[in-house]
Design goal:
This protein is α+β, with helices and mostly antiparallel strands. The chain has 28 helices and 9 strands. The protein has 4 domains: 144 residues, Glutathione S-transferase Yfyf (Class Pi), Chain A, domain 2, CATH 1.20.1050.40; 64 residues, no CATH class; 141 residues, Neurolysin, domain 3 (Orthogonal Bundle); 186 residues, Neurolysin, domain 3 (Orthogonal Bundle), CATH 1.10.1370.
Length: 680
Amino acid sequence: MTSDNTLLIEWNTPFGIAPFDRIRPEHFKPAVEEAIAVAKKEIDQIVSDVAEPGFTNTIEALEKAGSLLNRITPVLFNLNSSDTTPELQEAARDVSPMLANFSNDITLDPELFRKVKSVWDRRQSLVTDPEQLILLDRRYKSFIRGGAGLADDEKERFRAITVELSTLSLKFEENVLAETNDFTLHLATEAELSGLPDGIREAAAALAHEKGMKGWLFTLHAPSFVPFMQYADRRELREKMFRAYARRAFRRNEYDNTELVLRISELRLEMAKLLGYSNYAAYALEERMASTPAEVNGFLHNLLEASVAAGRRDQKDIEDYAFSHGHEGRLERWDWAYWSEKLRLERFSIDDEALRPYMPLEKVREAVLELATRLYGLTFEENKNIPVYNEEVTAFEVHDGDRGIIAILMLDFHPRKGKSGGAWMTGFREQWKENGRRIIPVVSLVMNFTRPTPARPSLLSHSEMNTFLHEFGHALHGMLSDCTYESLSGTNVKRDFVELPSQIMENWAWEKEWLDTWAADYRTGEKIPEDILIKLKESLTYNEGYACMRQLGFGLLDMAWHTMEEPFRGDIVAFERTSMASAELLPPADGACMSVSFAHLFAGGYAAGYYGYKWAEVLDADAFSLFREKGIFNSETARSFRHNILEKGGSREPDELFKAFRGREPSPEALIERSGFKRI
């Protein structure tokens, strides 16, 4: 291997983690080229093997092929999302078509497919182990779904489509980040800050100072944008912020994503039709728990029917409150968060800002990690010798009693110019077993929480704390994985099952029994008063009808884009409004378009899968009802959830895993009750 390229030499670092300080953007393209060449030789050995195809020399051999490539590519794409530069973006653009072509080289190889199909056809006599059966099933279907059965000219078109899609999704994400970074709202007078809490003002002043400006600076990043929309009294400023956010990548400039949305959806449709499906959703859903567009649309509309009365009640409550407190004219989208927060404060005597002093980030981090200790026996030890990709990142050894270190966890909390918005869990290395030895995963949580200021530490809102719990649930799925095969481990599960481990963790955010153990005012040490904790739990259903309809609207938009049977050539805004109309409560905003910044659909893995968030809510509410019945810290229940859900990854079918934990099929009743819809 080339010795002067850090990506291609052995990483003599703690736990074999990438030596980020020695990796340069220019290393990636040649490293990927060489890793692909190595992987092709490994594939060639499988193809040229004269022995009869079997599970070991074909399916397992395919699983192991490309290990060098699998070590390199997570480094590039994780850095490109969490700490990017123009040079890294260029490297990702260079590498993506190479990877797509290599993937096609595998699935479109007729001799390799012949061997895989031979094993598949004889699976009942060759394979008895359940995990091996799942791996064989996934591998065979990946060939079928990857074009192996196409005619030669169709294979070439399939290859061209996948290569183009790989570059377009990257460009989409780059454009959204550029547009998010491009806008700032600079305020110069105290009067313009009316309504904004001290912590938000201080953060804005600190950002302005950092930029060499006087006054206060607000951005479209969540820690700045969200509280501004909740608390700013100046309606015209809220409108300005909202319109800037809603027009990201829709300003007819170099970062406009309109054509990318149309092209990506068109290419997905063409690919699906090549493979014999009527639309992309039919193709994508074949490998989900909800396996058809009809099932997904039925699920969305049934849940919409259950929530619409609550949503309209929420809308009327907030409109009545706003009108009685001086609001004139109709309620617009830039008014909703503002009046909603005021009503929540009046109704429950709590708001996100009032809870911030009780939730300093360091204390929340400690509490979330200790929750994993209490539920699953894990302990976390910071190790400053572990390489990290940015000085703000902290790394922990994850210990599991006598089992020793079972994972490495990286935590990356605050916004940066090179970091995409939102919050996510990812991995620099998956878990698998090599000759019976468990290879430990390297998991990273990337978030965008409010930064500390000179006057106070980073203080999380309750919703930010909830986000931490959500992503940590994904991390537990990755860290506790105990599978044989890398492609089945951790979060490598069906898309509409992957949110169960994350969303179930959110339930603890509302439980007095947990909050009482750690939440205390960072200035005085006083716990959250009991009456506030009670009201916090009562507020769980506040605005839930509206929130549910909003999520369902996103799911309907996703399905509309991906159930089209002809390429769309019309007005993207009109299409969007029509698709979401049944779930909308507020009037549309002129000039706004969601699709062009909807990274989940067009730059992430949720195309024809956004419904999965609500689908998983059914699972998580039902699963947590067992914790509630047995006790939210009940060790037997936690042990069962760990063994049957978290450790298994994708090594079993999701419905089998859920039934093993819950003892029956999932029921939506727990979600409907938790959401308060039955009281309508």
